Each structure stands twice: as structure tokens, then as C-alpha cells.
Amino acid sequence: MASPILPEFFALLSVDLFALLSMLTCLLEEKFPKAISYIYVMGALMGFGHLWVSREFLIFFGDYMRFLYSVLYLAIALANVVAVNLYLAISKKSWTLAKAWSVVVTFPTLFISIFFVYNYGHLQGAAFPLLMLQLVLAGSVVILGTSISVILSPALLKKLRRR
Asked: What is the Cβ-side half-sphere exposure of residue 123, based on CA atoms within 13 angstroms?
């Protein structure tokens, strides 16, 4: 059964993530170096170049090869999302902003990406069991719920540390 998702979908998702990072780092310009938002714009433009090259060599590359380099580009975009979160937490010591970033940006992008990759693999007949997808999504809901409750009630975190 052919997947309704083309492998280039992951490259488009990556371009969107780089554009999102560019806009958010521009909005938080006092926390980041000035050049970082432009670097993320270049990452998005590289994604469009990636799509153009993929279109030109569509005949030579099979679905598996297109999937691999699209998911590699997605992994690079996700690593940048996590790196920005770690930069806020460790380098700038903005713990509140880092927690908010993880709830609003990091966890949703990671889980949406995992969902689409597993869904693509499952529809292609890969060895991604549906139970694994359900466990990952259930774990993401638990982590997201815990993160939101800790952000909204910092006293809860202090109570958990005392135990």
C-alpha cells in the first residue's frame, strides 16, 4: 500500500521548523545573538534547495533514499529546536523561558515529527509496530501534562524535590 505522505513532506516540515525558529529567535532577540535568526533562515532556504534537488533527481532516487535524506534534514531541524531549548536553560540561565519553550515548542514538534515518521513507516510496511506508536504518544502526553503542571505550579516541583 502506497503511503499518502510523500517523503518530501518531512523536508517541508523541516523548512517550517527552521522558519519557526527564525521567527521565535527574532522575537526573543535579547536572549540570542543577532545572527542566529538569519542562520535559521538560511537553514530554511537550504531546505527549499533540498526540495529542488529532490525534484530534479526524482527518477534516480527511490522512495527509500528520498525518505532517508528528508528524515535526516528533519533530524537536523529537531536537533536545532532542542539546542535552542538547552541554550536558554544552560547558557542564559532563563529557566522559566526554557520550560515554557519546551512545553510550547520542543515537545510538540518532537512528538508531531515522531508521529509522522512512524505513520509513514507503518504505511510503508516497515517494522514499526502500532503498539510502539501508541506508547510513544502516551508517553508524550504524560510528559507534556507533567511539564504543564510544573510550569503552572512551581510549588509542586518543590514538593517533589523534598521527597
From this structure: 13
Tell me, what amino acid is at 67? F
Report the b/e string of 12-30 with b at 16+ CB within 10 A. bbbbebbbbbbebbeebee
Q: Cell numbers for 119, please give them.
A: 505513520
pLDDT in tens, 30-56: 889 989 999 999 999 999 888 888 777
C-alpha cell at 107: 515537545
Provide the 10 A C-beta neighbour count for residue 6. Answer: 16
CA dist., res. 128 & res. 122, Å (int): 6
Contacts of 30 (CB under 8 A, 6+ apart): none
Tally of CB atoms within 10 A around 50:
19
- Angstrom distance (rounded) from CA 20 to CA 15: 9
pTM: 0.75
Residue of 27, 68, 19 lying closest to 47 (CA atoms): 19
Of 17, 126, 108, 22, nearest in space to 67 by CA: 126
Tens-digit pLDDT profile for residues 105-119? 888 888 888 878 877
Cα 9 to Cα 3, 16, 36, 46: the distances in Å are: 11, 11, 25, 15
- In this structure, are residues 18 and 109 in contact, taking their beta carbons and an 8 Å threshold? no
C-alpha cell at 70: 528528508
